[in-house]
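ok so for the tutorial part 2 we go from a plain amino acid sequence to predicted structure tokens. step 1 is just haveing the sequence, like this:
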Amino acid sequence: MSNVLEKKSDTYLYLQVIRLVKEMQIDGTIKAGEKLPSLRSMANTLSVSIPTIKQAYFELERQGFIVARPKSGYYLKSADIASLSPKKSSLAAQPVAVSRQELIEQVYQAIHQPTNLPLGVANPVAAMPATKALNRTMRRVLSLAGDTALNYGPTNGYEPLRRQLAIQYLNNGLLVSPDDIVITNGAQEAINIALQSVAKPGDIIAVESPCYFGVLELIESLGMLALEIPLDASDSLCLVDVKTAIDTHDVKACIFSTTLSNPLGCELSEDKKQALVALLESRGIPMIEDDVYGALHFGSKHGKPAQYYSKKGLVLTCSSFSKTVAPSYRIGWLLSSKLRNQTGRIKRAFSCSSPLINQWTLSEFLRTGEYQRYLNQLRQALLINKERMVSLITQHFPRGTRVTDPIGGAVLWLELVGDSDGDQIFRQALLENISITPGSLFSPSNRYSKCIRLSYGLPWSDDIEPGIKTLAKLCKESAK
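step 2 — the prediction. this is what the tokens look like for a chain of 480 residues:
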């Protein structure tokens, strides 16, 4: 095993040790109840320090994967009941009008109550805030730029930031011009601009299901109709479903998250992504790509954006720094070569420009390499949080509860048992000072009333385990 760990990898060594131990359990090298190699033995075998092995074993113990026995060592626990993946829903027969604003307002009110355990907000950066690095960068910008940094910025955005974004895409194999990028006030404005560039009130918009409720609310506000195309938690979109939908209905545009979806945390394989773009462009149907979570992939690198496979310029990519650096900066962007003039005009009509000081700061954050270093640390913090929360759910939630195993991002999607009502659990949890997101928000046709979404994008604290136990108790009571 001496060459198993990658010493030059961005992934911390102790996380690699954790992965190795779990792989040893899967392939039968170590069986339930058997003793793990001692700290010294494992350290010698892997050519790492004893503290590295100790940190890995401590985390495995915290996740309930192994148990420490005094004066004896560490032992592999008996496997918990395997968590089941949520079931895929059926393809919608008809597009529907969206009506979710009242419940969305309640969810947002719960999110902003400081006394609540914030399991309802998808805010990945809370797991490891970049506050000090951003403050340092902003002070440097202000010292160099002075009053200029407080002026209005160009409508399409600060040119050095657009150039840095183009470099980020180039690192992922996609050559784009900075002129094809419009800086927006978050990804929500980017999606809004993209939708108004390709569709009008009354048009049918195909969306993945479950779908981020902010997208559904946007479709509602624009007077459009949503057609749900089901996601598989392990395989993302089914191209047969997409083809059936566009063969049956007059779909004017699609909104998909092919790199990392919210709330399922799955991705579309590269060959299917390429086939999807080819299918849509062969019918002249624009695809709006919601790529806000792509950079939070837990693998060595995330998949290519669907934009990479576009031949006709009908893919409009929307993303932001809200999930990767600072939600309060409200800096996102829209990438489109074919429609850049139209998207720029709509942006000007909406908000004229986005905050220049924030754009300038983020531009420097990218240029100096601090952004990438921070992302590497954030991904690893989120991965540990995910493993801890999945372990707690497996231990405490009713038998048969289904939970996703996301490949990135900050949320888990749970399909509850029995007659559970996610809306009811949401309201009962608030009485216990716990905020969650009910699954019904993620469908215009109330498909996911037995589901809830939980966020592990938060600083891990001693409040989380009792909060999960309380939530599990409410779910047991609701299932009766």
